[in-house]
Amino acid sequence: MPRLAALHRRDTALIPALGGRDARPAVPPVSSAFLGAGLLGLDGVVCLAAPALAGGAEAAWVAAVLFLALTAAAGGYAPRAVFSPRRQIGAVLAGGAGAVLAVAAVHAGVSRWDLGVAAVTLGCLVIGRLGVAALIAGDARRRLAPRAVIVGRASDAARVAALLERREGPGLRVLGFAADPPGAQGDGLACLGPVEAALRLVRRGEVEQVVLALPWSAGERIREILDGLAEHPVQVRLAPDPMMPGFGASPVVTVQDRPISGWGSLLKRVEDVVFALLLLAVFALPMAAIALAVRLDSPGPVLFRQRRVGFGNREFRMLKFRTMLHAPGAPLLQAAPGDARITRVGAWLRRTSADELPQLINVLRGEMSLVGPRPHAPGTTAGGRRFEEVAARYAARHLVRPGMTGLAQVRGLRGPTETEDKLVARVRSDLEYIESWSLGLDLLIVAWTAVSVVRMKNAW
């Protein structure tokens, strides 16, 4: 266990003090999906060069496409392979051999030159993977890997940590364990404190995975912890009972996963950045004109910055063009039809939803998404009760980034929430979106928004 102990001492040094209220979330590791996409891009560049060396032969292009497809099928771009040079090279060799054999079977006249080009290309791919492995070796690799904490007694947590290290190696960074009551550091695994300390790390975005190393007989305690983690975008896994026979051969079961994770999160982030840049380019001049109109219409700032609750229950400042009279210190109340606080320009901005355009900046910052549940201000009420008191699963909306538009909005569920029923309907649509997300659904909502914004009836 000396190596495991050294790794845990180094990892726990990266965690800020647990007690500080103002401690900022640690910079999250790069998603394995992003790293896998980088490997796919590198392979794609090499594969595009190979057909050129082969004289642009059709068979070479077919082989290049087959290689990428077969390597992906062999798991060469999967999260587990990203941190394992052995898995990467094995997938590359399997993909290369399969592509060459498939093309040779169809094109019987493959020349020695073409075979030589294929061998050189495969060698370059293997060397490239070895270079990537060297770049993310050691501490760099562990900083990129997802972070995890184990919940359980010191002895049980140490056994589970050793099991995870054998199975996942550097693909997972175990920071330590938490238990009630806290135990002393044992077998090199740092004690982070009581279970509440692990929950604080989750709330601050310090970890991406929680592994429960509790006896399966402690079902009530496991359910309590799961309830405490249900509203946070963290993966929860249940380790095999440390006391059961065959512990080392039993699987670690995922009981809660992060929605829109892996390749889905990469795809959605690319969608957000591409659309945000395109829309900013299209609306740059109109936004400048709107800013001038807001400034001339009434005194006060052009932009309105409001605290909203976003991804992982963390607050951020959402940007909008100011649509109301500037009144510092005035109580925050939702707008209503005929609201005297709304300016002349503001009324038009609200009617056309043009006041939302500055949120494209929030999207580029990663605080928001183009499509997702709309973010609400802390303490907002429906029918006189706070949102989280009205809908039992309200906070589950924060498992994904909030959106500029969403399924609830295109269904007409926007505007004031005078009654609890209106909020419940919105939350139901938001949860439906999270559970059924796809790129096609996002594009449909964007198109639906563009059509419906001109006839919006619930905006004031």
Key descriptive features of the protein:
two-stranded antiparallel ribbon; 17 helices; disordered N terminus; 6-stranded mixed sheet; 460 residues; flat; 12 strands; Rossmann fold; 3 domains; alpha/beta
Structure, described:
With 460 residues, the protein is α/β, with parallel strands linked by helices. It folds into 3 domains: 107 residues, no CATH class; 111 residues, Rossmann fold; 187 residues, no CATH class. Helix content is 50%, strand content 11%. Helix 2 runs antiparallel to helix 6, helix 3 packs antiparallel against helix 5 and helix 5 runs antiparallel to helix 6. The N and C termini lie far apart (64 Å).
Explain briefly what this protein structure is.
This protein is an alpha/beta fold and 460 residues long.
Fold blueprint:
Elements: H1 2-12, H2 32-53, H3 58-73, H4 79-82, H5 85-106, H6 112-135, H7 138-144, E1 147-151, H8 154-168, E2 173-178, E3 191-193, H9 195-203, E4 209-212, H10 219-229, E5 235-238, E6 253-256, H11 263-297, E7 303-309, E8 315-321, H12 344-352, H13 359-365, E9 369-371, E10 381-382, E11 385-386, H14 387-390, E12 403-405, H15 407-410, H16 420-435, H17 439-452
Parallel strand pairs: 1-2, 1-4, 2-3, 4-5, 9-12
Antiparallel strand pairs: 5-6, 7-8, 10-11
Helix pairs in contact: 2-3, 2-6, 2-11, 3-5, 5-6, 11-13
